[in-house]
Amino acid sequence: MANEEDDPIIQEIDVFLARSLLEKLYLFQYPIRPASMTYDDVTHLSAKIKPKQQKVELEMAIDTLNPNYCRSKGEQIALNVDGTCTDETSTYSSKLMDKQTFCSSQAASNVSRYAAAVYKKGELHLTPLHGILQLRPSFTYLDKADAKHREREAANEGGDSSQDEAEDDVKQITVRFSRPETEQARQRRVQSYEFLQKRQAEEHWVHLHYYGLKDSRSEHERQYLFSQGHGLAENTELIKSPSEYLMMLMPPSVEEENEKPVAPSNVLSMAQLRTLPLADQIKILMKNVKVMPFANLMSLLGSGTDSTAVLRCIQQVAMLVQGNWVVKSDVLYPKDTSSPHSGVPAEVLCRGRDFVMWKFTQDRWVVRKEVAAVTKLCPEDVKDFLEHMSVARINKGWEFMLPYDEDFVKKHPDIVQRQHMLWMGIQAKLEKVYNLLKEHLTPKKQEAQSAHPLLVSGEQRVNMAKAKVKQNYGQLEKAFQKQKAEMKSNDTSSKMDVSSIHIKEEPVSDEEPMDTLAYESMNNGVVNGLHAEEDSMDSLNGHLPGGCIDRVAQELKAFVSSTFKKQFVLTLSELKRLFNLHLASLPPGHTLFSGISDKMLQDMVLDTGCKQILVPFPPQTAASPDELKVYALWEAGDTYDQHRQVLLEIFSKNYRVRRNVIQSQLSQECGEDLNKQEVDRVLK
């Protein structure tokens, strides 16, 4: 009360609501200018508006006679934008930057609380604002200057090229028929940024006339800011109680409810998830999480969910690994899909991932090189498998990401037994597919893991490997003698000698270094199923019988012949990649799985009528040695054999040749003039 007495009311002002400019009045906020210059002094050349978007563009003249105006800079900008020619399309017809464009943006989306007020003769007249727009300089003329610069550069480059290069190439046109658009696809298209931009661009500009502050038309329009009638009938909205009037003048702040963004098709909120059937809930959760303890799954499904029903559903989409549930491979890789990295079909990916899961049922640690050597998949696919269910440890390998769930194993022994039987069946299939050795089937004995990873020097690892090789030498000797006896019984003509055995001493450790495995060094000496030593004709599991060698040679020759009849020219690296994909598509137990060395593959390429092209690549090239070895089919039996041989001779002298040189050389060597289409066919 004391404060109110110290602050007495000095004057009461009548407030009127003007309606003449309702939904027509905008507030423009201009950039800051010097106090000596008002916007009334500025000449407005043109103005236009898009009413639906509330977008305005104003074009204002620049005072080029002002002492602060840099004339040389203005002339340079005009020259960059319009060039030397002046026509109707020029932005600056006076060859001087004498105008500037301002483009608007909305300062506030909700302007219902703002009004323009005019005070006159003790009365305050309010007109609600329809929009508040901030005007900022537009620099589209710079885009025009850049476009002119690119056109000049393109013209200069085109002038330097030869006449042959300037000819328009005949290009093949592919005609595609669009499928009928579904309702979901239409909604996504309508909500896309590109569609909204196109829709905004389609709205036509409405050109406006600008009237200055002292213009008679401005004076006339300014009168509409005053309420046209002071009668009570005209201002019934203001006949309110003081509290209602304040509520109407200053409504409570209500946050704008924006439209919820459309979530991706593979994302569901927990509220949406719980509306689905229980089996679908579990499948979606496992597909996204991939590895989960049963207790966590029950907490995500909400209270009141029957654990028996959950156990029945989880076994359809996941397998038990160390007491935790891991999503099945066929859920992640459905039928008729392929790897995004190598293009390997889903069936091969599922086999490889099942092998990784099975390895984790035997041990907490898995070595990536061992997985790659057995599955013969590319490093990216193997890394994806391991990242689904394990964590990389330096100098250790890959450790299963969750601890052993003893509580679940003790509570549900029947489930554990059933899962064990399933894993036994999967193990039997993997043994047939991958020809698993005894060392792959026996779990490795892990030493007690310390809290910190053990760092082992290179010399220590070599010594450990040598000791392990000496320790296992006796076992290798027995295995060889047994294999030799079997081979003698199968093929008496095949003789083998113990001295021909070559034991390669290299670090064989359960520990894995940092995950820096490159594509060329995968499989620990095996690249795409090919042994890395070129001077070795041994298979991965020992020598092959004579009959088996013939079958392998026939299969390999058939693959090389069919590949070069399709491709004609291949590098060794690309050939090995194609051979790896071919191996992945073969059925289990195929003869080519016995092991093919690089030397065998290259010899077979030469035996099938191909030649190595010694292309003189530049010394500073970053290509690998396998990428520098180029092989080409010398005789394909078609009409272009001679042309192809001439072309290969040309590239054996230079790795980069102009097209007109190739065409003239072909015409000279073959004694006939080839047209452009025939040359293109030979080059292709």
Automatic annotation (TrEMBL):
Keyword vocabulary terms for this entry: DNA-directed RNA polymerase, Transcription
Biased composition regions of type Basic and acidic residues, renumbered to the chain: 146-155
Residues of the DNA-directed RNA polymerase III subunit RPC5 C-terminal domain: 444-684
GO BP field: tRNA transcription by RNA polymerase III
Highest rank taxon of the organism: Eukaryota
Keyword Transcription in annotation: yes
Region (Disordered): 146-169
A GO CC term assigned to this protein in UniProt: RNA polymerase III complex
InterPro entries: RNA_pol_III_Rpc5, RPC5_C
PANTHER family in the cross-refs: DNA-DIRECTED RNA POLYMERASE III SUBUNIT RPC5 (PTHR12069:SF0), DNA-DIRECTED RNA POLYMERASES III 80 KDA POLYPEPTIDE RNA POLYMERASE III SUBUNIT 5 (PTHR12069)
Protein name, per record: DNA-directed RNA polymerase III subunit RPC5
Organism, scientific name: Calypte anna
